[in-house]
Amino acid sequence: MQENYLAKWLNGDLNEEELKEFKNSEEYPTYKRIVDATTDLKAPIFDSETSYSAVRNRLELNGSKIVKLHPFRNFLRVAAAAAVIMVGAYFYLNTLNESISTAFAENREISLPDTSTVILNADSNLSYSKRKWEKNRNVKLKGEAFFKVAKGKKFTVTTDDGNISVLGTQFNVENRHGYFEVSCFEGLVSVRFNDMVVKLEAGKSFVAINGEITEVGSPNESEPSWLKDESSFKSVPLKYVLDEFERQHDIVVTTENIDVKQLFTGSFSNSDPKLALKSISVPSQIKFKFEGDKVLFYGENTP
To answer: Within a 13 Å sphere around the CA of 292, how many CA atoms are in the beta-carbon half?
Structure first.
């Protein structure tokens, strides 16, 4: 990309071929994002004619010869536009939050500024302010994640259904479309759900399905099963089991003539889809048809 493309782009002087080349450059997305972020910013009013006259008058008073610079006005326009972008870039980069996401069938480990560790399960998102971490130790979670909080460090996990306050603990949080679960594996976790606060010690869980608190068994492992490539459930509606299968294997799930509200207790493999299908269908007494990246679960009496 030619070096003067940015200035010409800001002035709207690129021809069709140059504009196409500029948009295909590696730098273009960054320039575009900065310009979008500064759309509402306004540069100080700058009168180029007045400034030019002032410079000329000062030179005349000093007895210097005036040399007309025809590109001066264009330069001033580019300089003003560049100033707007620089100001916009400053505010954009300094208010930007860290945001990390995972796709279907993907896990990801993240280190927070206080050295705490977060492992994101499939189809999840974690966001926080890196610059303001010391004043605002808050992370926003959508999906599921396992937290290993550094000793003596405290922060809050915010979800759509509830908030979790922690201090040097290990715990798992899942929040997906009507399903909210917090399991404590070490230390103490404080869960705020609606108008109530629940304290969870190690080995305890809190579950709410569609806004209703549900009794579940306590975790008997040192970490959630999905970290060992397995998804486990205790008296969970089949709907959420099938949703999790879809996330872990990136396979589209459809159902026909089955009760997705029936409770499921068991587990399935996150690495072997065929074995996982059998682990779900046999205890649930349902059948399935598996083709490519799609699977149909159907009832025994389905024509």
So the answer is: 3
Q: How far is CA 9 from the centre of its chain?
A: 32
- Mean pLDDT by runs of 10 across the 303 residues of the chain is 65 76 72 64 57 61 51 56 54 65 97 93 95 87 95 89 91 95 94 93 93 81 93 94 97 96 96 96 95 92 65
Q: What is the pLDDT of residue 15?
A: 80
Looking at residue 237, the DSSP 8-state letter turns out to be E
In angstroms, rounded to a whole number, what is the distance separating the alpha carbons of residues 11 and 81?
8
Within-domain flag for 18: yes
Instruction: Indicate whether 303 belongs to any domain.
Output: no
**Does 13 share its domain with 32?**
yes
52 shares its domain with 157? no
Last residue of some domain: 62, 95, 128?
95
Cβ atoms 159, 144 nearer than 8 A: no
Structure token digits, residue 103: 């796709």
Q: What is the CA radius of gyration of the chain?
A: 29
